[in-house]
Each structure stands twice: as C-alpha cells, then as structure tokens.
Amino acid sequence: MCGAKTGGPDAAGIKAGETTIQGAVTRDGEPVTGYVRLLDSGGEFTAEVPTSATGQFRFYAAEGTWTVRALVPGATADRTVVAQQGGLTEVVIAV
C-alpha cells in the first residue's frame, strides 16, 4: 500500500525524496513487539530493526520490490511491498 496511512510511525520526520518503507506489526489488531527484517527481491537479508513498543518500524531503502518479514514471539509473517523512488510505502503485518 503506497501513500495510505496505516498506523506506521509519524511521516513528519521523513525527509523529502527518501524512499521509505514503514508500518506496524499487529496480532488481533493490537501492536506486537519483535523484529522486522528487510529482504531484497532475491530473498537476501538487507536490514533488521526492532519494533517500537507500539509495533512500529521504518526502513530507508532503494526503489524496488522488497519482502518485509515480522519476527515476533510465536509467529513469523512476510509481506511483499514495492517501494517507489522518493515515496512512502506503508504496510501493516498481521501475525
């Protein structure tokens, strides 16, 4: 989902022109803490960040197709996203 507000971190801190992937990890509609990995189009590990206390995460990435993988206690879930140059791509990962 590109451009739609889905509950990720506040977009106010994003610099114009940054290619950004952000969102939140939820379980039954509630935020979940854990880690989120960014995998490139070939499935190779690129980055990992912890979620905030409210399940939020953010990556600065290159344009292209990415897999965002949530790793939380008892569950793993993947979502494929397409980031556009200079755009904000938001995703909610339900585990």
Automatic annotation (TrEMBL):
Gene3D superfamilies, per the entry: Immunoglobulins
Top-level taxon: Bacteria
A biological-process GO annotation: carbohydrate metabolic process
InterPro entries (UniProt xref): DUF1416 (IPR010814), Ig-like_fold (IPR013783)
Name the record gives this protein: DUF1416 domain-containing protein
